[in-house]
Amino acid sequence: MPKIRTLEDLKKIKESTMDLTGARSQGKTRIIIGMGTCGIAAGARVVMEAVMAELAKRGLKDVSVETTGCIGMCQDEPLLDVIHAGEPRVTYGKVAPEDVPRIISEHVVNGRVVNDKVIGRTD
After folding, report:
1. Nearest in space to 66 (alpha carbons), one of 29, 95, 32
2. How far is C-alpha 34 from the geometric centre of its chain's CA atoms?
3. How far is CA 30 from the centre of its chain?
4. Where are the domains of the chain?
5. Are the C-beta atoms of residues 20 and 31 closer than 8 Å to each other?
6. Residue 86 φ then ψ, to 5°
7. Taking the model in full, what pTM does it have?
8. Which CATH fold would you assign to the domain 23-121?
9. Would you write out the chain's pLDDT as a tens digit for each of its 123 residues?
């Protein structure tokens, strides 16, 4: 690990690691999956695996996949949010692995919200 003695040293480290960390937050679209204990118990882990598999299958590299803890909507887990840059955040609830291809195809790729799975959105 390089020694950090100055602000310039820190900036150099940041620049050299951007390729490793940038994909997490720099995508045009963000997908956030609730991975608190409630989400995991409800099946969020397999939903996340389905998301990763669908993105890989479609070759979508400009989408970041992130996780979050419990947000207090345990009754609606697994939760999956889609955020397109400059658009409202859409929260899908009770997402099953078989819902993922449709959410990715309709919302992430084509920009059409899958209304029957929506439980909230920020406007």
Report:
1. 32
2. 9
3. 5
4. 23-121
5. no
6. 80, 5
7. 0.78
8. Glutaredoxin (3.40.30)
9. 567 778 787 777 766 655 554 444 555 899 999 999 999 999 999 999 999 999 999 999 889 999 999 988 999 999 999 999 888 999 999 999 999 999 999 999 999 999 999 999 987
